C-alpha cells in the first residue's frame, strides 16, 4: 500500500482497508493512557510495589504503553502475564474461560492491578477475579481500556476505565478477529464484508 491517509486519519497501515470506522483513535488512546497512569500512580503512591497482571493476548499493547506511562508518572511496577481465551474465532464469548498460560509466581500479599483490553460480557474478568482472589493477593483492582456497558452480563468491579463504547465488535490495539488486526494503532469496526469472507 502506498502513501496516504487511512481510516485512522494518518499514514495508512496494512489493515486499514478492512476498517469501516474508527471508534477510538490512536491519539485518544495515548491521551487516555496518560490520564489513567497519572490517576493510578497517585492512588498507589503509598504502596511498596505494584504488580500489573496483563491478560494476554488482547491487553498486550495496552500493558506495554500503560506500564511505560506509569514509569513516567513515577510509579515503578512489576509485570506478570496470564493468557486466557473465551472468544476463539468467534465474535461472541463462548462463556468458557480457558487458561492458556498461568501466573509464573505467587501473588499472595501483592497489590495486583489487572490490565485488560476490553470488558464485553464481563465473563472473562468475573472468572479471573475469582481466580486471583483464591490466590490471596492483598488487593486486586482492574484497569480496562474499553468497556461495552450494554453488553455486560455479569456485574464486575472495574476501578479504572478508559472508554465506554457501543455494543459492536471492535478490533485493533490488541483486539482481534480470528487473531487478525491486533497490530492496528487504533480501535475500529470491521467492514461487514470481512465477516463473510469465511
Ligand atoms: O468480557 P468478555 O466478554 O469476557 O470479553 C473480554 C475478553 O475477551 C477477549 O479475549 P479473548 O478470549 O478473545 O482472547 P485474546 O485476548 O487472546 O484475543 C478480550 O481480550 C478480553 O480478555
Ligand atoms: O469487541 C471485541 N473485539 C475483539 N475481541 C473481543 N473480546 C471481547 N469483545 C471483543
Ligand atoms: Mg480475542
From TrEMBL:
It catalyses: GMP + diphosphate = guanine + 5-phospho-alpha-D-ribose 1-diphosphate; IMP + diphosphate = hypoxanthine + 5-phospho-alpha-D-ribose 1-diphosphate. GO terms for molecular function: glycosyltransferase activity. Residues 28-177 form the Phosphoribosyltransferase domain. Its cofactor is Mg(2+). Pathway: Purine metabolism; IMP biosynthesis via salvage pathway; IMP from hypoxanthine: step 1/1; Purine metabolism; GMP biosynthesis via salvage pathway; GMP from guanine: step 1/1. Its EC number is 2.4.2.8. NCBIfam families: HGPRTase. Belongs to the purine/pyrimidine phosphoribosyltransferase family. PANTHER family: HYPOXANTHINE PHOSPHORIBOSYLTRANSFERASE (PTHR43340:SF1), HYPOXANTHINE-GUANINE PHOSPHORIBOSYLTRANSFERASE (PTHR43340). This is Hypoxanthine phosphoribosyltransferase. It comes from Luedemannella helvata.
Amino acid at each position: 500500500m502506498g502513501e496516504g491517509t487511512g481510516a485512522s486519519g494518518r499514514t495508512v497501515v496494512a489493515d486499514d482497508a478492512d476498517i469501516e470506522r474508527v471508534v477510538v483513535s490512536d491519539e485518544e488512546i495515548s491521551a487516555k493512557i496518560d490520564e489513567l497512569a497519572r490517576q493510578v500512580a497517585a492512588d498507589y503512591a503509598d504502596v511498596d510495589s505494584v504488580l500489573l497482571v496483563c491478560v494476554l493476548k488482547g491487553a498486550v499493547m495496552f500493558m506495554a504503553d500503560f506500564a511505560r506511562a506509569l514509569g513516567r508518572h513515577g510509579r515503578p511496577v512489576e509485570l506478570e502475564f496470564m493468557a486466557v481465551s473465551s472468544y476463539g474465532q468467534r465474535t461472541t464469548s463462548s462463556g468458557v474461560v480457558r487458561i492458556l498460560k498461568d501466573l509464573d509466581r505467587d501473588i499472595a500479599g501483592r497489590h495486583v492491578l489487572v490490565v485488560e483490553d476490553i470488558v464485553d460480557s464481563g465473563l472473562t474478568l468475573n472468572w479471573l477475579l475469582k481466580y486471583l482472589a483464591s490466590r490471596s493477593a492483598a488487593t486486586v483492582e482492574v484497569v480496562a481500556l474499553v468497556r461495552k456497558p450494554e453488553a455486560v452480563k455479569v456485574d464486575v468491579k472495574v476501578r479504572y476505565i478508559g472508554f465506554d463504547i457501543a455494543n459492536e465488535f471492535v478490533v485493533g490495539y490488541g483486539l482481534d478477529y480470528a487473531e487478525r488486526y491486533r497490530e492496528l494503532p487504533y480501535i475500529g469496526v470491521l467492514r461487514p464484508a470481512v465477516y463473510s469472507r469465511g
